[in-house]
Amino acid sequence: MLTPDAAAFIQSNAPFALDLLRVLARIPAPSCQEEKRVRFCQTLLESWGARSAFVDQAGNLVYPVGDQGDNPLVVFAAHADIVFPDTQSLPLREDDTRLFCPGVGDNTANLVALLLYLKYVLSRGLQPAGPGILFVVNTGEEGLGNLKGVRYLDGIYGSRMAEFYSFDGQMTGITDRAVGSRRYRVTVRTRGGHSLSGFGRPSAIAELAAMIGNIYALPVPAEGIATYNVGTIEGGLSVNAIAPEASMVCEYRADRRDMLQRLDKAFLAIFQARRRPGVQVLVEEAGYRPCEHLGLQAEARRQDMVHRAAAALRRCRPDLEVCAGAGSTDCNVALARGISAVCFGFYTGGGAHTREEYLWKDSLLPGYRACFETVLPYFRPRP
Q1: How many whole angstroms separate alpha carbon 66 and alpha carbon 76?
Q2: Which of 56, 209, 85 is CA-nearest to residue 143?
Q3: Is 80 exceeded by the pLDDT of residue 383?
Q4: Closest CA to 18 of 78, 89, 101, 79
Q5: What is the mean pLDDT of residues 21-47?
Q6: Other beta carbons within 10 Å of 88
């Protein structure tokens, strides 16, 4: 539950947070190009007195509180990147009830909630009640970012992380299980030639199309999660030329390690089957997200985290139905290591991953309360 001081802080700072959201949402942040947004957040934290905030080699903004170098740590992270490739200021508009901007919800609104709590910590001089705390504005969550930011965190802090929270998504959902995935970039090369005089020669596009057809013919199990997708294709020269080169980016996903392995064998067999003299097939891994691997103790802790998250969300928005399910998030890396992790967010809206993305303004204040209710128990009460 919120303390009176925290509740008053949220209420008085809600206009500031909305203005911050308007500013931050305009700052471009494609995956692996989040520097502008991260620098903005670093400058903001430093203006609040966060002298020890730093940007690591993966581009993450990290603010440690109570990090003694060897003590356990709880991580609270919100990714800075958005799915859109824009490198110029993003278009923002609003009406009385909604705020529209590509990426405004996923994940800018959740990042603002984390920043607001950091402002509270710094203004009150709060210290952890138990494990140390890492606040992280991380990079590389979307698309082919391949979880770059949290992978780097795992390499530095992995053995010390006791719990991992990712603030991502809306208030209606909690991601409590990890869906793994692998992504491939496949390029087919042939001799090509004139569509009339060279008719009958292998076409890179036809070879790629055959692969795509075989991918979409793969069976999926009746239980659990298993999916596949071809996300992009490109290639060819002109309508009267046999395509000498074509490529695609494809993926498969599953919530079990054995199914990931089965799908990998199936994908690689499809690629291999098209290789022959005159047809070159190049396969590059474009990304990999692991499934979870939790022991009984970590599983019990995760269930407790999920229960507390759901309770906080329902208290702050009793009109919403909060559901838990599997997904692919920054938590995958922690869950694969056996660290308890959970992912949820602090707004409601629609159109995520489209240019018409929006959020409901009246969801923000309850979202800030839910964020504070989640993080506040990890800090000592004010004297």
Answers
A1: 14
A2: 85
A3: no
A4: 101
A5: 98
A6: 7
